[in-house]
Amino acid sequence: MRTVGVDLGGTKCLAVALEGGTVVGEDRIPTPVGEVALFDALAEVATAVGGTEALGVGVGVPGLVDRTGVLRFAPNLPGVFDLPIRAELESRLGVPVRVDNDATCAAWGERQVGAARGYDDVILVTLGTGIGGGIVVGGALMRGANGFAGEIGHMVIDPEGPPCPCGQRGCWERFASGGGLGRLAQHAAAEGRAARILALAGGDPAQVHGEHVTIAAAEGDAEAQAVLVELGRWIALGLVNLANAFDPEAFVLGGGLVEAGELLLGPVRTAFAGLLSSGSHRPPIAIVPATLGEHAGAIGAASLFDTVREIAPT
Ligand SMILES: [Zn+2]
Question: What pLDDT shows up at residue 140?
Answer without folding.
Answer: 93
